[in-house]
Design a protein that fits this description.
The protein is an alpha/beta fold. It has a single domain, classed as Rossmann fold (3-Layer(aba) Sandwich). The chain has a 7-stranded parallel β-sheet, sandwiched between helices. Strand 1, helix 1 and strand 2 form a beta-alpha-beta unit. The termini are far apart.
Length: 263
């Protein structure tokens, strides 16, 4: 396959939350497009196993770390430099989404969601952005937000929705700051995507399997394109934003939801 303006040969990328779901889909596409990818994940053992599944001109390296750790950003940059000599692309995909109504929300759970989804994302971006400025060759930062940054999907995701709304505003603010350095900062807002963890937040909600299935069916019924998304639906857009084809795009949110927000 000829990647043309989407070719990423010679580029080094970091993808957080890269060992499964949307993250792994993005890793696969970036490697197929020619990039070398540092697959960052909380589960380092899983990431190591998943690297063996990757095929393409680029190569993958696994790195296990919790992105909410205070020095995670610099450690990720150091690992990418050790592995590939540079960092050109960052995809902030790592995130958690426990489902708890706000009236039952603990402060600890709220803070954990914000620490991973927003604060961790921001300071990984800071460390990678600083390295991109030092390199002087520009770069691409892509944040995985959510349609919940624009409209809540259901009760129980107040912490998640707040974090993703923050991701949207952080994207715009950081794009403004990084533009003069030739670094593009954009975000993707996935809708409902079928992954290994699709039902995870519902499983802790006290709902039965039948109730969970009914909720997902109702959600899908409101998608004009008639189906849930797949990781590759997001991965293809992330590859576009990471490529020279998106050199004049920054501070934007691309909604990839099959039209769900139309309903």
């Amino acid at each position: 396959m000829t990647w043309g303006p989407f070719d990423l040969s010679g580029k080094a990328a970091v993808v957080t939350g890269g060992a499964m779901g949307i993250g792994f889909g993005i890793v696969r596409r970036l490697i197929e497009a020619g990039a070398d990818v540092l697959m960052v994940d909380l589960d380092g053992e899983l990431a190591t196993r998943k690297v063996a599944e990757l095929e393409g001109p680029g190569k993958g390296v696994a790195f296990g770390i919790d992105i909410s750790e205070r020095l995670a950003g610099q450690r990720i940059v150091d690992e990418c430099i050790t592995s590939f000599g540079r960092v050109d692309i960052l995809v902030n995909n790592a995130g958690i989404y426990p489902m708890t109504p706000m009236l039952q929300q603990s402060r600890e759970s709220w803070e954990r969601v914000l620490d991973v989804n927003l604060t961790g994302l921001a300071f990984v971006s800071q460390a990678v952005g600083a390295r991109m400025v030092e390199q002087g060759t520009g770069g691409k930062i892509i944040n995985i937000a959510s349609i919940d940054a624009l409209h809540p999907s259901m009760v129980g995701l107040a912490a998640y929705d707040s974090s993703k709304g923050g991701v949207l505003m952080f994207t715009k603010a950081f794009a403004l700051e990084m533009g003069p350095h030739g670094v593009n900062v954009n975000a993707i807002a996935p809708g409902g995507i079928t992954t290994e963890g699709t039902a995870a937040p519902l499983q802790g909600s006290g709902m039965t399997e039948d109730e969970m299935a009914a909720m997902l069916e109702q959600f899908t019924a409101k998608i004009p394109l008639g189906r849930m998304g797949e990781p590759d639906d997001i991965a293809n857009v992330a590859t576009f934003l990471a490529s020279p084809a998106a050199d004049y795009v920054t501070g934007e949110l691309i909604v990839v939801d099959g039209g769900r927000l139309l309903n």
